[in-house]
Design a protein that fits this description.
By secondary structure, the chain is mainly alpha-helical. 77% of the residues lie in helices and 0% in strands. The relative contact order is 0.11.
């Protein structure tokens, strides 16, 4: 929760106004311009911080609940079953969902929603055009369902055709894969309502829907596993995970439908103009094509594990990744989604915006991104210091003894250095996807192909060096570092160039003056680095640390209540 407060402060703190002294004073006309009212920017900022809080609360609840569930799953499901469900089935699900909806989601966020107050002041033809534009945007949100049907069929059939012999021997595999594909399609039916909630910043609706879905999924999965374990056959374990995912999709859809009703595609009044907005459809196609490469990079570890690692090792990797990604999913994923909405709205065009007003918005975006990077850099240093110091002490408490002999401890150790890179990359790519023009996105797609080559070659190199499954984490770290450099270069060009805004592909903008953006904020101050180095030395040189590690290894979780353990935790908390 401390990290969440840091990131909320980065969005809401004064750095948005810190460059005002260096900007030319606005004329009275620009101050009263209705195009970009200051209250509108403040309302957007307040909504974004509220949205971030809701999303962090959702992820905190879901991940803690899932962690409790996993403790039971580790004992009810064998490592082979857990590896199949958490690695291979999740890869099937993410492939269907990500490739079907990611491009449309980003395009909808960058659309210029319709304003009812404006439509009242227009003539009948103008209202008809606005209604048609709204209908076409709504119709676009159904595109993921149309894409998902053939994609689900191809993905499921392809997986079953090329699954290893070890996977095929598991009971009811075909049934489980089929249920997962159906669950993905049901979840895609929620996309029109999900996009409406995100565009209207109704984050509470999404939090309730996904929170109920996660609760229902966890209870359904655990219930089927428990009943199967009581029969002593371990026959329906894979189906248990599949049914849990289907229950989640149905619960989310029902929760959204209760608030928004069931949406349907509509025919525009101008029937010859087509069902979709052409500009947004083109942008969606561009982002969907880019998402193919991004998906390979994001899920590359699961792909390599599926083809090259035995199921036992996949289970150990899945458990380590589940714990390692807790912070990333609780804080960084909601932050990235909130930033995508925030920057998309802040940099989107309104009708005939004044250049001075556009410059203010660009400067506000630059200050927000700079403050975010500064906070992330500082928190990352502290996380590496204390995470690497306390991880050996925590491992015996969270991992069952049979998993301590696997690669799980080494994978979690690599996550300590991977999480800070993941955080920086998430915020920067959220800004890039919100501000880039279609030509910028095409250019990024070409670079993404190069990043995928870097990832694969680095992973193979580390495997040859004998690092095992940890190679995937280190390769991802190298890959994300290259993507961070690319995003920083884009941000410098975007804020430094005197050009029209790239945030809207549908309108031509007045040329906007360059604004200040400092990459130097990524580097923490010298006093902070010096103090952090001193703290690291004190923590690592603590004479109690080896004794605490040995006590927990031999005595288990009850050793945490011993005096020596409390003194070591206190040392870390005092210096932190």
């Amino acid at each position: 929760m401390t990290a969440m407060m840091y990131y909320s402060a980065a969005l809401s703190a004064e750095p948005f106004e810190m460059a005002s002294s260096s900007r030319p004073p606005q004329s009275s006309s620009s101050k009263s311009s209705p195009n970009v009212p200051k209250s509108g920017s403040n309302a957007l900022l307040s909504s974004s911080v509220t949205s971030l809080s809701f999303l962090v609360a959702l992820q905190l609840f879901s991940r803690l609940f899932t962690s409790v569930l996993n403790q039971a799953l580790f004992r009810l499901a064998s490592p082979s079953v857990f590896g199949t469900a958490a690695i291979q089935f999740e890869l099937i699900l993410s492939t269907i969902l990500f490739l079907s909806r990611e491009g449309v989601r980003n395009a909808i966020l960058r659309s210029k929603g319709t304003d009812g107050s404006k439509s009242k002041s227009k003539k009948t033809e103008g209202r008809d055009e606005l209604d048609d534009a709204h209908v076409k945007q709504l119709n676009l949100t159904f595109l993921p369902v149309l894409l998902g049907v053939p994609l689900a069929a191809l993905t499921s059939v392809g997986y079953l055709a090329y699954a290893s012999e070890e996977v095929r021997k598991q009971p009811h595999l075909t049934l489980a894969v089929t249920v997962y594909a159906i669950a993905a399609l049901v979840e895609l039916l929620s996309e029109p309502m999900h996009n409406r909630a995100m565009v209207e910043l109704k984050t509470d609706v999404r939090v309730r829907a996904e929170g109920l879905g996660i609760t229902a999924k966890s209870c359904a999965t655990l219930g089927v596993l428990f009943l199967d374990a009581r029969r002593g056959k371990d026959e329906w374990a894979l189906v248990a995970f599949a049914l849990g995912q289907l229950v989640y999709a149905l619960t989310v859809w029902a929760s959204y439908a209760r608030v928004f009703g069931v949406p349907w595609m509509k025919r525009p009044r101008a029937k010859t103009s087509g069902y979709f907005d052409k500009a947004l459809l083109h942008l969606s196609a561009t982002m969907t094509g880019q998402s193919v490469i991004k998906h390979v990079l994001t899920e590359g570890d699961k792909m390599m594990l599926t083809f090259f690692s035995p199921l036992q090792d996949q289970g150990g990797y899945a458990i380590a990744a589940n714990y390692g990604s807790l912070l990333a999913r609780i804080v960084f994923q909601p932050l990235e989604e909130t930033l995508r909405v925030y920057f998309s709205r802040l940099l989107s065009s309104s009708s005939s915006p004044a250049a001075s007003s556009k410059k203010d918005r660009r400067q506000q975006a630059a200050d927000a991104l700079s403050a975010l990077l500064q906070v992330q850099a500082a928190v990352s240093v502290l996380f590496i210091i204390f995470g690497s110091a306390y991880l050996p002490v925590v491992l015996p408490l969270v991992l069952p003894p049979k998993y301590l002999a696997t690669s799980a401890p080494r994978v979690l150790g690599a996550w300590v250095y991977y999480i800070p890179v993941l955080a920086l990359n998430g915020g920067l790519e959220a800004f890039l996807s919100s501000a880039a023009s279609p030509s910028d996105l095409n250019r990024q797609s070409r670079w993404m192909f190069g990043f995928s080559v870097i990832y694969v070659s680095t992973a193979m190199l580390f495997y040859r060096l004998g690092l095992g499954d940890v190679s995937l984490i280190y390769a991802n770290t190298v890959n994300l570092s290259a993507r961070i450099i690319y995003c920083l270069a884009f941000a410098s060009r975007f804020f430094g160039a005197s050009s029209s805004s790239a945030a809207s592909p549908t309108t031509s903008e007045a040329r906007v003056p360059a604004v200040h953006f400092g990459i130097s904020s990524l580097i923490p101050s010298i006093p902070f680095l010096a103090a952090s180095g001193l703290v690291a030395g004190l923590v690592y040189s603590s004479a109690r640390r080896p004794a605490v590690e040995a006590a927990i290894r031999t005595g288990g979780s009850m050793s945490c209540y011993r005096r020596m353990c409390w003194s070591m935790w206190g040392l870390g908390l005092f210096w932190e």
